[in-house]
Design goal:
Layout (H helix, E strand, L loop, with lengths): L1 E4 L2 H16 L7 E6 L6 H11 L14 E5 L15 E2 L5 E2 L10 E6 L6 H5 L3 H5 L4 E6 L13 E9 L2 E5 L1
Parallel strand pairs: 2-7, 2-8, 6-7
Antiparallel strand pairs: 1-9, 3-6, 4-5, 8-9
């Protein structure tokens, strides 16, 4: 499926739809999503939208220099929040995100393989352990750099820069 996003809100909606679909897929290992596309095509923005939808409040930035960043997905009541909708506030005046359904993930791992020469370098970061844990959801920018170690059935999303405000997202 191809989508054209003209703003952040549309990117968030595409991310939400994608995450709802993959959340229903259960496997013996982690869910792995490869983000393909040139610099500036929207991979990190899409990943930030996914993190937001999972209820991750930390500032999610591209892990270009550290290769990998790991985020804990908050407990069930915070998972799968609806982006853009008004949210209830708790006693600390922070948003409470209510889940339309439960997801089995507890860790969100964001990898930027741009500076890697092969999958061997990613294996040195315990990637195999992360890959075998069904509680992980892993998003990899520049997956073609480590393709030899990726599961054959990983989800693929292609990003294309159209204009300053438009990106094509093909899932």
């Amino acid at each position: 499926m191809k989508f054209v996003s003209k703003n952040l809100k549309q990117t968030e909606e595409i991310a939400k739809s994608f995450l709802e679909k993959i959340a229903l897929e259960f496997s013996d290992g982690a869910i792995v999503v490869g983000l393909y596309g040139d610099l500036g095509s929207g991979k990190t923005t899409f990943t930030q939208s996914i993190a937001k939808y999972l209820g991750i409040d930390e500032n999610v930035t591209s892990p270009t220099f550290v290769i990998q960043k790991r985020y804990q997905i908050p407990n069930t009541e915070y998972r799968m929040s609806n982006i853009g909708e008004k949210k209830e506030k708790d006693k600390k005046n922070t948003e409470i995100h209510h889940s339309p359904f439960n997801i089995p993930y507890s860790s969100f791992i964001h990898i930027d393989a741009y500076r890697l020469d092969s999958g061997k370098e990613l294996l040195a970061l315990d990637f195999e352990r992360d890959l075998n844990d069904p509680k992980n959801i892993i998003f990899i920018e520049w997956p073609e750099r480590v393709s030899e170690i990726l599961p054959k059935n990983h989800a693929k999303i292609n990003f294309k820069f159209i204009s300053e405000n438009e990106r094509e997202v093909e899932i």
